[in-house]
Design a protein that fits this description.
By secondary structure, the protein is an alpha/beta fold. It is built from 14 helices and twelve strands. It folds into two domains: about 15-245, Aspartate Aminotransferase, domain 2; about 250-340, Aspartate Aminotransferase, domain 1. It has helices at about 15-20, 35-45, 60-70, 85, 90-95, 110-120, 150-160, 170-180, 185, 215-225, 235-245, 250-265, 295-305, 325-340, and strands spanning about 1-5, 50-55, 75-80, 100-105, 130-135, 165-170, 190-195, 205-210, 280-285, 305, 310, 315-320. The radius of gyration is 20 Å and the shape is globular. Bound molecules: pyridoxal-5'-phosphate.
Length: about 350
């Protein structure tokens, strides 16, 4: 099977498995796991923040950030297609007791003026604006990079208004590699950043939340409250360290392959792809003219050995990653051409 459903499907490399087997461990709830500490320090250092916190997943990292920055009854400004709003099971409302203020963005970017207008003033009727969330790269915008200049403007506004900014950087390293800018430059435009080890970086489990020492100390308590205080978690942290130190540069290869896949799919009758919109490792294809429904098309592709995801409306998402080889791209394009009934 050529599995292009997500970059989460990667299996740990041999080096990661060896590192897991050999990891020095301790009880991390007591702060005694040296491998977890090394991972948290490495992530904080790479992202230019004071402290880091290993969390079980990207969702947990984002939700801990919301819990740490806000109080119940506050409002959180989010892009209407953001993961934290779209794909996190309503956790912001259920756990933090906040309401969301979704704003429609273009390629994942809410207009700065729209954010400014959405920040609540001082009126007895209004909730307080407790947090602004950005996502980079933006998943539902097809892996779009939020440019550094945009991030800087958004953060300048947030600071001026005294509202904290959380960056969902599940794929921030993809943004950094695509933009040719250090990941810490993006992280400098946010109070807290969540990064996933288990996406393009290929680790089996885990995310990190980074920020100031004070914010991370409070986040650590929320992690415990959510059942995320893990004990000998060094076995998870060890492959995470390899992900951070050895797996970043190779993301460029995923981006090249995604670009080639987009070009190939764009040439298939019945499939429309905006090739210029493919900046990182995600390709969104419109299959409204292939002569069958999206779910039929995805099933037909699976029958040809290619897995992709229905992505809403008439679109299908393909994500390149560590376990996708060069020849898989050609095979995927051939399978899509075989499955399309359009001629
Ligand atoms: C995958 C993802 C997450 C959540 O990560 P999980 O580890 O699956 O919980 C958060 N934000 C974005 C943008 C993602 O793509």
């Amino acid at each position: 099977m050529i599995d292009l459903r997500s970059d989460t499907v990667t299996k740990p490399t041999q080096r990661m498995r060896q590192a897991m087997a050999q990891a020095e461990v301790g009880d991390d709830v007591y702060g005694e796991d040296p491998t977890v500490r090394a991972l948290e320090e490495t992530a904080a250092e790479m992202l230019g923040k004071e402290a880091g916190l290993l969390v079980t997943s990207g969702t947990q990292g984002n939700q801990i950030a919301v819990l740490t920055h806000t109080r119940p009854g506050q409002e959180v400004i989010v892009e209407a297609d953001a993961h934290v709003f779209y794909y996190e099971v309503g956790a912001m409302a259920a756990l933090a007791g906040v309401q969301t203020r979704p704003l429609h963005g273009v390629r994942g970017q809410m207009a700065i003026d729209d954010i400014a207008a959405a920040i609540r003033g001082n009126n007895i009727h209004y909730p307080e604006t407790g947090l602004i969330c950005l996502e980079n790269t933006h998943n539902r915008a097809g892996g779009a990079v939020l440019p550094l200049a945009y991030m800087e403007r958004a953060y300048a506004l947030a600071r001026r208004m005294g509202v904290p900014l959380h960056l969902d950087g599940a794929r921030l390293f993809n943004a950094s590699v695509a933009a040719g800018a250090p990941v810490r430059d993006f992280a400098a435009c946010a109070d807290t950043v969540q990064i996933c080890l288990s996406k393009g970086l290929g680790a089996p489990i885990g995310s990190l939340l980074v920020g100031t020492r004070d914010v991370i100390a409070r986040a650590r308590k929320w992690r415990k409250a959510l059942g995320g205080g893990m004990r000998q978690a060094g076995v998870i942290a060890a492959p995470g360290l390899i992900a951070l130190t050895e797996m970043v540069e190779r993301l460029a290869q995923d981006h090249e392959r995604a670009r080639r896949l987009a070009e190939g799919l764009a040439n298939v009758a019945g499939i429309a792809v905006d090739v210029s919109a493919v900046e990182t490792n995600i390709v969104v294809a419109d299959v409204s003219s292939v002569g069958m429904s999206v779910s039929e098309f995805v099933a037909a592709l699976a029958g040809c050995g290619v897995l992709a995801t229905e992505f809403g409306g008439s679109t299908v998402r393909f994500v390149t990653h560590l376990d996708i080889r060069e020849e898989d791209i050609d095979d995927t394009v051939a399978a899509a051409a075989f499955c399309s009934r359009a001629r």
